[in-house]
């Protein structure tokens, strides 16, 4: 927690006292006699309205109670575990009447943060005050218990995963599972000529795996069940496209493959997000072009059970909030669950295998580590041309296509059943009827949750499943707040939420010792700490803590005199027309997030008297490609509109590689992979539904020596893909030598990408993100780079005056 002690001054300048990010505030709220005499004071006596309370740190809403009907003697008795990284003078408890549209404030109680910092439990009655900070009519009070836990006193703070008995992230719905196996995937496919020689411990070398090939085999070999969820699923794609690695029946489309399996008696259930902007009557695809109606129509009348799932709100929402959730938010989980063979070759017994990550089974996703723009338009991408960043694009007009970089994983063992349970909760909530297989009826065939690795096997994994989801999307969440808390869930206004993905990121950042490597489609949040005068924090409400946790982690390392480095890879811009209001708004939020982080870092460096480049502690990158023309390339029949962005990119032979990954690696020992972006939509829990996993290998931890297990090999393979080389300096990402090397390469590749001339292919794809940083941390344009190449889109974004922030954060 960070506390602003504004009463202390030095030479007339406010002194900010920095406390390391606290583990959190634990609080409980009771409220006897809170409303006695209030109704008369505010002239409100509506028996249909109900009471609830909120918890704020400064202007950041961090907790909310359930609704109560008892106006005269309300008692919540709710507990909260709140992660803190805020600048706040008080913990603020606000009591409100809930109305069908909006809410009416009764009053607020304040408790000074400074009085919490000794870590002792506070048990007090707080007086409820009006807007003038005077007691409300009747001198009503609220009873609270508060306790602050300093993160530096946590056992795992700054120590990584110290012991093999590490219990996992606390206060979560799913606990950590042992004895698992995890397979990590970079992109849809890895061709045989992508061969980075990456040494691991135990004398082994890292071996990349083929994602869509493995999913094809898993679906093909399933005997009892195939369960799939997706933001988008397109029936016309094929999963096998590498002519050097053919498979029997590999030319079948996904839709035909699923119908064939269903006709064989396999239970095929699909939950596909229902884009409410798609119009079945007009056969019109929605704004997101997810093919939802097309997919549903394809399977109608077949043995495949495909359900279109709108993002329904949970109870306890106002009319306006219901509309927001139903039209603005999505089901974003990408899951495939099958029954698979046992490793010992037993042909009768089966086990559960789950796939999760960032890859949807739809068009525009298939790609390799080479991310070609033009050279696969005759082959792999001729019937899968995807370019939504310009108007009027088509295969007839030619490239550049939009290359796609993504990350996915396979989970085997007990954690695979947690993914299955998530699907079952969702199906029971939104499935048309209960078609789920009761696995207890076939427990003689499908073995129950059990380890797939021996405890002493050095390749074993510990895995924990996390989610962002609420009771509007998952069946069976407890309704009582105390039961929800015991289940690792968050309660508020009759809305029960699983927000464990954000918790997992926070915990991993706080444990980190040396470095963090992030790839994500979006990077924005912690708006409570943005340094801006033209916005109100409460209007933006992008409160997720991850960016602030990262900057405070770096600050803590600077203060301790230790090296620490954070690498962040994002797309050049969010997918879509780069000049559009929505894309520009997101870039604006991203700029404010970056600026907040660099300001924190530069201030810490100044306090320590260190003259250093802040990019040697935090660096942002994007991916791009540029290709010379080769003989035999696809020749388009038409040409783009002259002087359009499409035409300019085609002439320059360049385009961004779209980063769709949702991954974080910590110290080469711990990895998070899932569907969740680093924005409020994904991390909120009550907005987009998401799923992720956090995993490590107990025999490959960063304790006395650097970790050299599969997580390390995966990061090095990603760096080989992005940088086009391996270098011994990459073995220590936290070192100044490493980040200087990476930044130098990123600068070189950006200059080659943005140059007017093209002589050779880009030797790698990692580009320095094109921003400048002032000595105070302000994000500025690079000289001569106001807009992204071949566009009229400002790099720094533009604040939208009409799009609601809830849509773009």
UniProtKB/TrEMBL annotation:
Its EC number is 3.1.4.4. GO terms for biological process: lipid catabolic process. Gene3D superfamilies: C2 domain, Endonuclease Chain A. It catalyses: a 1,2-diacyl-sn-glycero-3-phosphocholine + H2O = a 1,2-diacyl-sn-glycero-3-phosphate + choline + H(+). Keywords: Calcium, Hydrolase, Lipid degradation, Lipid metabolism, Metal-binding, Repeat. The keyword Repeat applies. One of its GO terms (molecular function) is phospholipase D activity. Hydrolyzes glycerol-phospholipids at the terminal phosphodiesteric bond. This is Phospholipase D. It comes from Solanum stoloniferum.
């Amino acid at each position: 927690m960070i506390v602003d002690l504004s009463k202390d001054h030095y030479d007339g300048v406010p002194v900010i006292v920095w406390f390391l990010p606290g583990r959190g505030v634990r609080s409980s709220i009771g409220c006897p006699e809170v409303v006695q005499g209030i109704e008369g004071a505010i002239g409100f006596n509506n028996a249909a309205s109900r009471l609830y309370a909120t918890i704020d740190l400064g202007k950041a809403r961090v907790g909310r109670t359930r609704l109560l009907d008892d106006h005269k003697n309300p008692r919540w008795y709710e507990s909260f575990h709140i992660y803190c990284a805020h600048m706040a003078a008080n913990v603020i408890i606000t009591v409100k009447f809930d109305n069908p549209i909006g809410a009416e404030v009764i009053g607020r109680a304040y408790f000074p943060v400074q009085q919490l910092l000794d870590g002792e439990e506070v048990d007090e009655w707080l007086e409820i005050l009006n807007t003038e900070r005077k007691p409300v009519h009747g001198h009503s009070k609220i009873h609270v218990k508060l306790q602050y836990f300093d993160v530096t006193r946590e056992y795992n703070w700054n120590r990584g995963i110290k012991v093999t008995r590490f219990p996992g992230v606390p206060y979560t719905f799913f606990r950590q599972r042992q004895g698992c196996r995890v397979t990590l995937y970079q992109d849809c496919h890895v061709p045989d000529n992508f061969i980075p020689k990456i040494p691991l411990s135990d004398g082994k070398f890292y071996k990349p795996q083929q994602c869509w090939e493995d999913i094809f085999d898993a679906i093909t070999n399933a005997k009892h069940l195939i369960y799939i969820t997706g933001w988008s699923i397109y029936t016309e794609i094929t999963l096998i496209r590498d002519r050097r690695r053919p498979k029997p029946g590999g030319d079948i489309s996904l839709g035909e493959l699923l119908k064939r399996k269903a006709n064989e008696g396999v239970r095929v259930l699909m939950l596909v997000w229902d884009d409410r902007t798609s119009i079945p009557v007009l056969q019109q695809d929605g704004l997101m072009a997810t093919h939802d109606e097309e997919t549903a129509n394809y399977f109608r009348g077949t043995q495949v059970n495909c359900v279109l799932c709108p993002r329904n709100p949970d109870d306890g929402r106002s009319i306006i909030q219901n509309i927001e959730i139903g039209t603005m938010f999505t089901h974003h989980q990408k899951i495939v669950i099958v029954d698979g063979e046992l490793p010992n070759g037993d042909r009768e017994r089966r086990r559960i295998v789950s796939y999760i990550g960032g890859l949807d089974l739809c068009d525009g996703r298939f790609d390799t580590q080479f991310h070609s723009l033009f050279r696969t338009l005759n082959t792999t991408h001729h019937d899968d041309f995807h370019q939504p960043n310009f108007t009027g694009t088509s295969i007839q007009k030619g490239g550049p296509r939009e290359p796609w970089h993504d990350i996915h994983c396979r989970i085997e063992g007990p954690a695979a059943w947690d993914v299955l349970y998530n699907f079952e909760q969702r199906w029971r909530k939104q499935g048309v009827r209960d078609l789920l297989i009761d696995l207890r009826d076939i427990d003689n065939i499908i073995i129950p949750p059990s380890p797939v690795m021996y405890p002493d096997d050095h390749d074993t994994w510990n895995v924990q499943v996390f989610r962002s989801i609420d009771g509007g999307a998952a069946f069976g969440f407890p309704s009582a707040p105390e039961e929800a808390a015991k289940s690792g869930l968050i309660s508020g206004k009759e809305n029960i939420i699983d927000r464990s993905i954000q918790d997992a990121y926070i915990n991993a950042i706080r444990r980190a010792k040396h470095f963090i490597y992030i790839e994500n489609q979006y990077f924005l949040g912690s708006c409570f700490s943005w340094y801006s005068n033209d916005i109100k924090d409460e209007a933006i409400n992008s409160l997720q803590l991850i960016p602030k946790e990262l900057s405070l982690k770096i600050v803590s390392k600077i203060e301790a005199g230790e090296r620490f480095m954070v690498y962040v890879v994002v797309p050049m811009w969010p997918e879509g027309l780069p000049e559009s209001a929505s894309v520009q708004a997101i870039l604006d939020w991203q700029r404010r997030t970056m600026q907040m982080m660099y300001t924190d870092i530069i201030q810490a460096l100044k306090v320590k008297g260190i003259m250093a480049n802040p990019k040697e502690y935090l660096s942002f990158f994007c991916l791009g490609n540029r290709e010379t023309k080769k003989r035999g390339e696809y020749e388009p029949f038409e040409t783009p509109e002259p002087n359009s962005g499409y035409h300019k990119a085609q002439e320059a032979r360049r385009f961004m590689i779209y980063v769709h990954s949702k991954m974080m690696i910590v110290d080469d020992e711990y990895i998070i992979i899932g569907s969740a972006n680093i924005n409020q939509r994904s991390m909120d829990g009550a907005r987009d539904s998401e799923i992720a996993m956090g995993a490590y290998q107990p025999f490959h931890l960063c304790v006395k020596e650097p970790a050299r297990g599969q997580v390390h090999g995966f990061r090095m393979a990603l760096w080989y893909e992005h940088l086009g080389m391996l270098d011994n300096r990459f073995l220590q990402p936290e070192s100044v030598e490493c980040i200087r090397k990476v930044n130098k390469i990123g600068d070189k590749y950006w200059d080659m990408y943005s140059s007017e001339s093209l002589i050779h292919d880009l030797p790698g794809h990692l580009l320095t993100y094109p921003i400048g940083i002032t000595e105070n941390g302000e994000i500025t344009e690079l000289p001569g780079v106001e807009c992204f190449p071949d566009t009229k889109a400002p790099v720094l974004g533009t604040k939208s005056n009409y799009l609601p922030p809830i849509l773009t954060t």
